[in-house]
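seq as requested:
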Amino acid sequence: MILIGDVELAGIKKIKSGKVREIFSFEDMLLIVTTDRISAFDYILPSLIPYKGVVLNSISNFWFDYLKDVIRNHIIETDADKFPENIKKYSSMLKGRSAIVRNAQIIPVECVVRGYITGSGWEEYKKTGGIGDIRLPGNLKMCDRLPEPVFTPTTKEDVGHDILITERQAKNVFGASVIEFLKEKSLKLYIKASEYALKKGIIIADTKFEFGSISDEIILVDEILTPDSSRFWPLEDYEPGKQQPSFDKQYVRDYLLSTDWDRNSVPPELPEDVIAKTTERYISAYEKLTDKKFAM
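struct tokens:
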């Protein structure tokens, strides 16, 4: 097992280091490497989660293939053994956790789709009876399924929290036709994926999509429908009116909330048992969704 935190590839230009992903540029393409870092409350935690990068990359690749009939995506190659020679020499580190993708111009809006009322959506609903400019039924309980999935865009911030904006505000910034297209595709992606996941015993409570453009074509980019970008709940344990057990990093958030960390300073190391149980949750999500045994 190789734990990957920071990534440097001699001779290949790194253009961005995100909370989890490292992005490199070569020719007219990008190399995305998914590390074993984990973030919570806008901080990168000091602990690495074994196998996390491989699991996230594998889940994204699964969804990109499953949903390719909804919209074209940025994937060019996911097999490290087929990468160009100057990158393939790093294949022992990159195998399973990297992808070569098209270099799209990112549309700076997070396309959030919610099928259930939870998280920041629940907090806003309690105050206003809706989310953004979307009115919702008045008798919803925490984690209730919504009458239909809703599109609630946010800004895409490099630092700090993304900010919820209304669909109207998004149209004013990005244009009505662009936002209508993103909304239509986001809802179709969520509905197809969530219906599939339910058959595998997983509720996708909410998720976010990112899009970019190449020439005049809008395509799906970044990661999709992973435990980092979505809330995954076990169907067998689902019970509205309370917080749900999860396959995603909510387990880590809950642990951190149980400590005396003030969320305004360097985060603490995670205990070994929390790290191990987090790995188990990520692997379990992969195996349930793909019907494949995760190869450690």
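The chain has two domains: 13-103, 106-259.
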